[in-house]
Amino acid sequence: MEIDTSSLDSVKNFVKNYKNSSYGKIYSLVCNAAIAGQSKGEKTKEGFDDIFATNHLGHFLLVNSLLPLMEENGRIIVVSSDMHDPPKLMHPNFEWIGAEKLAKTNEELSKSSVRYPYSKLCNVYFTYELVKKIGDKKLFVNAFNPGFMPETGLGGGKITPENVKFVKEKFPERVGDLDKSSQALCDLITMKDLKANGKFFDRSTKSIKTSELSYNEKNAKELWDLSESYVKNYYE
């Protein structure tokens, strides 16, 4: 089942309909929506930056709303990106600027593709903080990097051949393979012996370390608390 995470009302309605359905418990939940840097700073109807809302806030509401329906030993996969740690050539001064600035479109950020990397960093913060919040509940929560794959429609078809050539020439190590990444994501959901929790998987079932910035617990808590305040009136 798919859902539009750019609208908190859509998430709320989805959860309501699911709870009233006969689908039952949920074994796997994959958060895979993404708007890339081609967005010009549009706002959602709730007034949030569209990249922040689609790539993070909608997932935050969806996951927290559905936690009571997750099966024991269920899997939650948050599709992030290695762009949570963008190349210095593209973003030389990439530091946390605070969740409130990311949530509200402003002139500085609307002119920059940096909002996409920040949203992917939010994905990692969300993953790590969610593991803490769940505690002893038997769920496995992990993040996943599929790699740069323009053939999937990333950017809504607005990524130009010049953009693709630039990435492949300058950062070939960041390019993903659709078949391999798809298989790895499937394996992370279906492998019965996989007990990883709070890990970041890079185009495979092998986990790797994320950026130094991504382990800042203060930032992760700030993001969580502010996100909670934004969605509190949308729980079903």
Describe the structure.
This protein has 236 residues and is of the alpha/beta class. The protein has a single domain (8-234), classed as 3-Layer(aba) Sandwich (Rossmann fold), CATH 3.40.50.720. The protein has helices spanning 8-19, 50-66, 99-103, 107-110, 115-134, 161-170, 178-190, 217-231, and strands spanning 26-31, 70-79, 139-145, 200-202, 207-208. The protein has a 5-stranded mixed β-sheet, sandwiched between helices. The chain is globular and about 50 Å long.
- Low-pLDDT runs: none
- Inertia-based shape: globular
Q: Main sheet? A: 5 strands, mixed
Named CATH architecture: 3-Layer(aba) Sandwich
In helices, the fraction of residues equals: 40-55%
Going by CATH, what is the homologous superfamily? NAD(P)-binding Rossmann-like Domain
Provide a count of the helices: 8
Q: Distance between termini? A: 18 Å
CATH topology: Rossmann fold
List keywords for this structure.
5 strands, 236 residues, Rossmann fold, globular, 8 helices
Summarize the structure.
This protein has 8 helices and 5 strands. The chain is an alpha/beta fold. A 5-stranded mixed beta sheet has the order 1-2-3-4-5, with helices on both faces.
Write the layout of secondary structure elements.
Elements: H1 8-19, E1 26-31, H2 50-66, E2 70-79, H3 99-103, H4 107-110, H5 115-134, E3 139-145, H6 161-170, H7 178-190, E4 200-202, E5 207-208, H8 217-231
Parallel strand pairs: 1-2, 2-3, 3-4
Antiparallel strand pairs: 4-5
Helix pairs in contact: 1-2, 2-5, 5-8
